[in-house]
């Protein structure tokens, strides 16, 4: 369970939709799709039927309900077993008039219903590499700003992907989270952009063939975050999730934004 894992920022996750396909170099050893990864584990548990493929979108109607989400509290990851904003129909299709749009709207409709009715401090984290698509959809859906119960996160792996994706995230009014995982190269966040973030999360790649993270890269990010007063969280620094390494210079970094309680 995520709640019992100190290296996970989530209390739990909700996956009424699963599936993704490689998008950038950070996907090469994807924790979901790789051999022996989360997809295979979930299949062994009986949560994913044999007919389902990791690189295809699958909607589980029995999970896409208010009842399936309403029991989850704390910090809830929305569609962690894939990317909700994946462009399955291709770029020639309108974001707002395609099967993609309906699936995304159905998921957000349920989150909105549960969060509005509950009216507590539960947070729902949207996590994507498709930053432009997420921003376009959320700005259209919530013209007055993304509701306070959402955290909007983008995943990047190096300076180039951050430069491409971060400007889109920063267009949103709401909690903006930069997830640097797997961190494959040093990253410097422009000072003007840094102060617009509410949370920075860093993690290494794990598993067979993992590409190494250098601690000096993380130190530099930590110093940036501390200097700007941005909460900083280190998920892991080593290459083996079974023996997690989380200490940086003798300390663990488990900072959360105000209102985010695991």
In percent, how helical is the residue content? 25-40%
What is the percentage of strand-forming residues? 15-25%
Question: In sequence order, what are the helices and strands, one letter per element?
Answer: EEHEHEHEHEHEHEHE
Q: Main β-sheet: number of strands, strand sense, barrel status?
A: 7 strands, parallel
For the record, what CATH class applies? Alpha Beta
Number of strands: 9
In the residues, how many domains can be counted? 1
Radius of gyration: 18 Å
Mean pLDDT: 94
Overall shape = globular
Strand order of the largest sheet: 1-4-5-6-7-8-9
Which residues form runs of ≥5 with pLDDT under 50? none
Structural class: alpha/beta
CATH architecture level-2 label:
Alpha-Beta Barrel
Question: Count the helices. How many?
Answer: 7
- Span from first to last CA? 12 Å
CATH topology: TIM Barrel
